[in-house]
Amino acid sequence: GQQLNQSPQSMFIQEGEDVSMNCTSSSIFNTWLWYKQDPGEGPVLLIALYKAGELTSNGRLTAQFGITRKDSFLNISASIPSDVGIYFCAGPFGGSTLGRLYFGRGTQLTVWP
Amino acid sequence: DTGVSQNPRHKITKRGQNVTFRCDPISEHNRLYWYRQTLGQGPEFLTYFQNEAQLEKSRLLSDRFSAERPKGSFSTLEIQRTEQGDSAMYLCASSGGARGPSYEQYFGPGTRLTVT
What span, in angstroms and rounded, lies between the C-alpha atoms of A7 and A76? Predict the structure, then answer.
């Protein structure tokens, strides 16, 4: 299957710091989605990106669709303890119209108060 | 609507037993997906329905697995003769979009299966 590579694998930061993480693929994606998952729960959709170069914000979260269509970035500003969780990037491969999503392995974020 | 719901939230079963999970999607969504997630991994696609039609199945979905969506609303995922390797979180998601593909999938809380 398609591989999405997320980095870093984990991050340990202090409350108030900004966070950056990214997701890369060897294949072109036409859509990028970012999800957050808390322990024992399902992923929650944070941001959806549909156009190369697009920059979209959701509160303190900002995500960008890379111009090569092979990467995406997620930034969290002024982190707070409830930002703790695993952040996944996901997307449908190529021109798939069926909506099957491929996921990365996630970035585990820990925020120290 | 309160979102995607899944039942049960947890299931412990002995190897060889059959289990069935239920998913109720967001009511106006016509697409429904099943994923499986193991520790340290992202969700992996299992199967997909549009209305009552099962349109795609992953090779992960062995012949011990069957999914149905009989009236295009809720869906069930059954695993027959469970094996310890089936232990995972089973996630259901739904999406809408009567006018074309909608990749914004909304997930339920999952069913955690433990096979002993």
Answer: 14
Res. B72 pLDDT band, cuts 50 70 90: confident
Read off the pLDDT of each residue in B58-72 and give the average, rounded to a whole number: 91
- Please check whether residue A49 is in contact with residue A61, taking contact to mean a CB–CB distance below 8 angstroms: no
User: Beta strand B111-115 with B10-13: parallel, antiparallel or unpaired?
Assistant: parallel
Query: Shortest Cα distance from A100 to chain B (angstroms)?
Result: 7
Nearest to A101 among B105, B108, B110 (CB): B105
Distance from CA of B81 to the nearest CA of A (A): 25
Cis omega (within 30 of 0) for bond into A81 = no
pLDDT per position as a tens digit, A1-20: 568 999 999 999 999 999 99
d(CA A77, CA A44): 19
B interface toward A at CB cutoff 8 Å?
A: 4, 6, 31, 33, 35, 40-45, 48, 55-56, 91, 93, 95, 100-110, 112
Residue A52, Cβ neighbours under 10 Å: how many? 16
Mutate which: A101, A102, A103, A107, vs B, most B CBs within 10 A: A101
